[in-house]
Design brief:
elongated, respiratory chain, transport, NDUC2, electron transport, mitochondrion
Length: about 120
């Protein structure tokens, strides 16, 4: 995981850290494929149940449906990644064209600097 060096002074600096988004984890690479294969398996099984047939009927359909589901999961994963890349590129391009709409971030203040002095009044209860 990449840690950002603070302070981030502008919106473009915030968008410059793309290595987290571009280097996905093993789980984010495979979950869509696993879900597609699972849907394929249970789709064939529900088809057999709806037709009042045993689960092992048409057993050749299971691997075909699972392979089709895995392939569909890969296609959807790549489509989503391209959509996200395009979205971030559009945002970055807009910020580069209109810097006046995005002022720099204000300086960070600590909570202790914002508190005013306080003297407790003790009444002696």
């Amino acid at each position: 995981m990449t840690y950002v060096d603070f302070p981030i002074n502008s919106h473009l600096e915030r968008l410059a850290y793309d290595e987290v988004r571009e280097n996905p984890s093993l789980f984010s690479d495979t979950w869509m494929s696993i879900l597609g294969g699972t849907f394929g398996f249970f789709g064939v099984m529900s088809y057999n149940v709806a037709r009042f047939k045993p689960a092992y009927t048409g057993v050749w359909r299971y691997p075909i449906a699972m392979a089709a589901g895995v392939y569909a999961g890969l296609i959807i994963r790549d489509w989503r990644r391209e959509k996200v890349r395009t979205k971030w590129a559009k945002i970055k391009h807009y910020i580069e064209l209109h810097p006046e709409d995005f002022p720099p971030y204000p300086a960070r203040t600590k909570i202790g600097d914002t508190l005013s002095p306080w003297v407790p009044m003790r009444t002696g209860w």
